[in-house]
Each structure stands twice: as structure tokens, then as C-alpha cells.
Amino acid sequence: MKHLVTLIVGITLLLSMSVSAASAHLEGMAERLASQAEELAGRSYNGFSDRDRGNRADVEVLYLTQQFSAAASLFRRMLHDRRPDSELRDAVDILSDVARSSERFAFARREWDELQRTLDEIARELNMGRFRRDDEGARWNDNDSDSHMNGRMRWRGRVDNEVYVVVQRSNASIRMIAGSPVKNASSNFTAPLPRRALTVEVKKLKGRGSVEIIQQPSRDNDYTAIIQVKDNKGEAADYEFELSW
Q: What was the pLDDT predicted at 19?
């Protein structure tokens, strides 16, 4: 009987130590996530404050990074307060939704990917199984070996002076370089731009100035294409082009 009691006590101590180690590991990852998010939010605000005038996309990026930073800090606090695992899983799910919404923008893609990797580690630690990002990747054909995919994107807008159209997946955002904000901008995709190195081609359909590709998708730029639309004739003019891959 004495040996049985000793064995039970020993097992209890081992389980307690294992739970404490796992909790410390999770807290470390939550701390890393909050620090990464805070650094990204600071970088976003500094870049925004350096501009004389930002466009709608610049403001959206600013708010998105601040929102994610606050949410990451809240998750860290929930973990510190020993909230139930079900609540922590919901929090990670919400954080991942916010991170995925960043895919609409070309800003800090490398940093966002690092944040998502940290979220994936936390999800595995919380036994969330196959995280939704994997399904998202399959839906978007993100596998680099998926070479059969091709498509087109048609963009139109009224441009004054110079803008960059930044294309990533199924989003075409506008980066103002000079002149007034673009008016009546719209884009239509037949398929998302794949997450793999490839060569895109552009065909100008309308406009008096130039439409040129200044950056091809690659691993270094997180598979982003950038198209320069430049009009130096004075006054704004309508432009339309088709990007194909």
C-alpha cells in the first residue's frame, strides 16, 4: 500500500510538471506573438506618419496592424489569467481571421507570414488540429508545385500622374506615388495570382501614358506583382490594362 501511494504521488508530480512546462511554452509563444505584433504596428504607424497624405489602403493597413497588436496583447492576458482552452482556441481563430485579412495588402508580407507561423504553433499547442490556414492554402492553390494554374486580372481607374497597382492573390491595391488619388478604381480576376515564382505580362487597353511591370512575383516579394501606371500629360485620364499569367 505504501508503494502504491508513493507511485500515485510520483505520477501526480510528473503530470503537474508536464502541464507547467506546456503552459510556460504556450506563454512564451504568446509573448512572442504580442512582441511581433507590437513591432509591426509601430512600423506601420511610423511609415504612415512619414507620408504627407495617405490613401484609403494606407489607413486600412494602419488600423489593421493596430487591431492585431491589441488582439495579440489580449490573448496574452487571457492566457496569463488561465482562461479555458475553449476560449483560447476561439481567440486564436479570431486572430487568424484578422491576419488573413492582411492578404489584401502588399505591406509587410514577410512579417505577416511570421505572425501566422506563430499562430500556427499556438494552435497546435492548443490541440486545434489541422488549422484553417491549410484549407485556405489549398483553396488558393498556394502549393509552389501547382504550375498548371493561369489566369488574368483586368484593372481600370482614373489616374493623375503616377500610381502603382500592387497585385497579390486576388487583390489589387493602389499605392500612390504622385498626383491625386485614383478615382473609380476596380479590378476583376479570373483566378488568384499563384503563390509561386512566375512571369506576368501586361497589356494596356486604354490610356495615353505608360503601363509597365516594375516587379515580377518572386519568393523575395511574397509573390507580388507591381504595375506602374504613369500619366504626365496633365489632368487625370482613364486607364485600363490586363495582367495575365
A: 42
Walk me through the domains of the chain, giving residue ranges and CATH numbers: 2-139 (1.20.120), 152-244 (no CATH)
- Residue among 226, 224, 227, 228 at smallest CA distance from 109: 224
User: Is the separation of the CB atoms in 208 and 146 below 8 Å?
Assistant: no
Strand ranges for the chain from DSSP E: 152-159, 161-168, 171-178, 183-189, 201-206, 210-215, 225-231, 237-244
Contact (CB, 8 A) for 146 and 198: no
Residues of the chain with pLDDT under 70: 1-22, 54, 129-149
Cα angle at 38 between 34 and 44, to 5 degrees? Answer: 145
Q: Which residues are within 8 A (CB) of 201 and not within 5 positions of it... i.e. 6 or more apart?
A: 213, 243, 244, 245
Asked whether the beta carbons of 173 and 106 are under 8 A apart, the reply is yes
Written as nine digits, the cell of 166 is 500592387
